[in-house]
C-alpha cells in the first residue's frame, strides 16, 4: 500500500459527458476533469484515470480509497475496463472562515 498525501488544484470544469479516447475517435472535444495515475510496470505505462464529472466552483473534491486490482489502460484518456480499479470521491462545499492577517510595519 502506498499513501500519497498531496493537493492538486484545477479550474472548474462543468463538462458532464462520457467522452474519452475510446468513443470520440481521437478528435478534440470537451471532456470532464480526469485525475490520471500512471504506474510503470516493466517499462510499460498503465494508466488509471479517475473521471470527475461536472466539477464546480467552491467545492472540495477528495479522491480516496483508490485501489488498483489489475492492468490499467494505455492512455490517461481511456477508462480502465473490467474491475481493475476502484475509488471513492467525496465532494464538500467550501466553508467560510475568518483569518487574522498581521503584516510587519515597514521600518
Features:
single chain, 107 residues, 35% strand, two-stranded antiparallel sheet, two-stranded antiparallel ribbon
List the helices and strands and how they pair.
Layout: E1 33-41, E2 44-52, E3 59-68, E4 85-93
Antiparallel strand pairs: 1-2, 3-4
Written overview of the protein:
- The chain has strands at 33-41, 44-52, 59-68, 85-93.
- With 107 residues, the protein is mostly beta strands.
- The chain has a domain at 33-93.
- The strands form two sheets. The protein has a two-stranded antiparallel sheet.
- A hairpin with a 2-residue loop joins β1 and β2 (44-52).
- The relative contact order is 0.20.
- The model has no long low-confidence stretch (mean pLDDT 86).
Can you summarize this structure?
This protein is mostly beta strands and 107 residues long. The protein contains no helices and 4 strands.
